[in-house]
Amino acid sequence: MAAVAPAGSWARVATALLVGCCGAALASGVQDQAEQFFKSGHTNNWAVLVCTSRFWFNYRHVANTLSVYRSVKRLGIPDSHIVLMLADDMACNPRNPKPATVFSHKNMELNVYGDDVEVDYRSYEVTVENFLRVLTGRIPPSTPRSKRLLSDDRSNILIYMTGHGGNGFLKFQDSEEITNVELADAFEQMWQKRRYNELLFIIDTCQGASMYERFYSPNIMALASSQVGEDSLSHQPDLGIGVHLMDRYTFYVLEFLEEIHPASQTNMNDLFQVCPKSLCVSTPGHRTDLFQRDPQNVLITDFFGSVRKVEITTETISLKSDLAGFESKLPKDELATEPLKYAEQLPVAQIIHQKPKQKDWHPPGGFILGLWALIIMVFFKTYGIKHMKHVF
Amino acid sequence: AASAQLQLAVPVAVVFAPGSVPGDLPRPLPFRDVQEMEISVNLRSHVTSRYEMAYRRAMAREEAALDAATAREADAALHPLQDSSLGSLTVYVVPETSSLLPQGINVYVGKHRSALVRAGEGLAALRTRLRLLTQVMSFTASSIAAALSDRVPNSQLGPDARRHLKSSLGYEITFSLLNPDPKSHAVDWDIEGAVSRYVQPVLDKLSVVANFSVDSQVRAGRGLAGCPGVQFPASNVFVVCPQILYYAVLGVTPRFDKESSSFLLSAHSLPHVINPVEARLGSSAASLYPVLNFLLYVPERSHSPLYIQDKDGAPVSTNAFHSPRWGGIMIYNVEAPASPQTPLPLHVEVDMVRVMGVFLAQLRLLFGLSREELPPEFLLESPGNEGLADWELDRLLWAHTVENIATVSTTLTSLAQLLDKIGNIVIKDDVASEVYRAVASAQSAMAKLATGHLHVAFQASKEAVTSSERAFFDPSLLHLLYFPDDQKFAIYIPLFLPMAVPILLSLAKIVREARQRRKEPTKMD
């Protein structure tokens, strides 16, 4: 990480100087760029990064997610617009020989955990239900702002998922799955409420392409690390830490993203070429038929970065200095109430003496009733009606 | 997407001053006239605009007011005499040769809901001016299309449509001062005073759009402390949170221009300025409203003075830029001290009048109130400290009401489609009642729009949106909690199939025995 930062800032300074010198000549080019910006139509960027595996030997999934998190933050998306879900804690795991670090390159070259990681959903909070709630917005009112996806119709959202998967499902926490149908339905719910402008879905699991087969909402582009029937392989173990550090596909995506800076013009077609079969062993796939724009015109920074459109402010309001008005508002100060203490706002007595809520009992539904009726009827028919009188 | 038939009625009173009545009126004054125009948004949505014009002569008091020396005084005198309910317009027609309007100006639009128009050559010319004027003061086809931007195919809209803030129940406004060089500049800004003096009146005016509770939020912001999260806004508020950030640098290095001996930031490097700063800006954890950030940047001493260059290379007069749906940044240059021996840090007293003038202009632009695209014969009265004219408020309300109604109909339709698709969702009573309330409010809003009662229509549309959002985003509607059919089979078949084998065999045996028994009686005969 130390090697990368100066290079980036030098590149930026060089670009700024170059551009400044050739400003006039590039004026028309700038105009075209401005048109290009407006073509993408988004005004803000969000990222939902999900790691679904727990246990120490799934270190690589956490490292995958954290490296995408790092790239996305570096390219400009702020923490307030990133929902990071990590199913287990690798940095402070008792088996981690280097606590407070998560490495992505062997020989501990790159610590993706860094200093300011903000994990929104951690450990057992990463469930299918919570993930779907984040996507669809059907979230309990008590959820804090950092745990919500507050996107609007002009948001470009990047969704990255990694973990163990199969044909049509992705495993969460070793105890439940999310199916491709559910995911497609969740995206449709998002589209109905216009919770995204464009969506980029990246998945790094075994048979990842099956997860995007069922999408049917517009403006979705999907990438997967492997086709149906193929496994996604991990990259390299680190003998010091004892586990595989990254998956191949995400490793090469990370290397690709390290070259990108906020002003770069690299487009999606380059991302599709990342990790050919010779490097990845599996065949990465992508799906663009639901996407309206040509991938050639889609910048990487449209999803991974947060380059905002700006306009020069040419209007101004001439205000009159209004001292008299200010004086007249002062008496209202005395009516200001004393700030409430935190505890006074909570119904403490109610919380302490709360009894556990009784789950509503539902009688068994028609299917099960019918099944049992059939079983009982056949039993008594086969073995004779005389048994009935023992029952009643 | 559901189809929408909306009718928007605008009551317009056209008052003729003496000497301005055209000769070719179809009927003698006073008379009423209705002009309907259809704005078709797409194949299924139609919006009809209905201008209910009431033509009459001026009354004695109005004539006296129109005798004033300037248009501004006439407008001020006429204000108490007109119907100033939200959504209505009053147009005063003055003779073609009248000196009330300056030379070359044919239409003067006042601060409230009235305008002065020259009579023109005949009725046709007057009608053209009236049509243009009423559209400017209420809504145009493009503003309606922008409000319904969900339903309009993307290519038809210009870049304007993507700019404006969406209709929301409340907005959070943050004012931040960025001082990257505290060693050289000790910047002092009276933000609380400026907010209560200049921002407050504008927000009070906008309180119809989203209610603003004055007392606690504004006072409580104390410089470095940021936003206190104590009182959660009851409903529809603007929350104002000032903060100061030290050592926050812009993401782009400006280049030095020898001719003007100043530093310049070119227009296309501006998008990269915002990102590094954005990470530092806090937002109130309690509210879920869209946030508008206004930043004041005092450049470092080594990079002063700093100007923004527009596309043509000229420095921008306001030295500010804004980003749609995000906020605005203004660069405040500090004059270099007279003598180089002045001790550092320099004490800088920010001129809040100038700064707030720019921020409020940016706030208007973010809401979509721009005064630029008007024909040259129009003269608009500046709203002064109020920030926006009454008719601009009406424009916002028209657009927001239409947008709210469209949102409600889309939300409820998609909810209905969801219920059709997943048959075994349980709808709780309160969700059902919210849906009914949303439908009733939306219908009432549409009815009020058709009769020209804008204020009531807007309030009804706001209630409709609140109810429909509450119904749609109710946590109980997550379909994972219900038992999808394919999972029923996936779980029960492995359990019951082995058990079912002896049952099915027994069933087969029963059927065979029954058949044999039926055959035997006939055989025994």
UniProtKB/TrEMBL annotation, chain A:
Pfam family of the protein (one): Peptidase_C13
Coiled coil: none
Pathway: Glycolipid biosynthesis; glycosylphosphatidylinositol-anchor biosynthesis
Signal sequence interval, chain numbering: 1-29
Record field: transmembrane: 361-380
Transmembrane is among the record's keywords: yes
GO BP terms, alphabetized: attachment of GPI anchor to protein; GPI anchor biosynthetic process; proteolysis
Keywords on record: GPI-anchor biosynthesis, Membrane, Signal, Transmembrane, Transmembrane helix
Active site: 164, 206 (nucleophile)
InterPro entries (UniProt xref): GPI_transamidase, Peptidase_C13
A single Gene Ontology CC term: GPI-anchor transamidase complex
GO molecular function: GPI-anchor transamidase activity
Domain of life: Eukaryota
PANTHER family in the cross-refs: GPI-ANCHOR TRANSAMIDASE
Quaternary structure annotation from Swiss-Prot or TrEMBL: Heteropentamer. Part of the GPI-anchor transamidase complex, consisting of PIGK, PIGT, PIGS, PIGU and GAA1. Interacts with GPAA1. Interacts with PIGT; this interaction, via a disulfide link, stabilizes the expression of GAA1 and PIGK and links them to PIGS.
Family statement drawn from the similarity comment of this UniProt entry: Belongs to the peptidase C13 family.
Listed name of the protein: GPI-anchor transamidase
Automatic annotation (TrEMBL), chain B:
Record membrane topology: Multi-pass membrane protein
UniProt cross-references to Pfam families, sorted A to Z: PIG-S
Pathway it works in: Glycolipid biosynthesis; glycosylphosphatidylinositol-anchor biosynthesis
Keyword tags: Endoplasmic reticulum, Glycoprotein, GPI-anchor biosynthesis, Membrane, Transmembrane, Transmembrane helix
GO cellular component terms, semicolon-separated: GPI-anchor transamidase complex
InterPro entries listed in its UniProt record: PtdIno-glycan_biosynth_class_S
GO biological process, one term: attachment of GPI anchor to protein
Cell location: Endoplasmic reticulum membrane
Transmembrane portions of the chain: 489-511
PANTHER family the record matches: GPI TRANSAMIDASE COMPONENT PIG-S
Protein family according to the UniProt entry: Belongs to the PIGS family.
Protein name: PIGS transamidase
Organism, scientific name: Rhynochetos jubatus
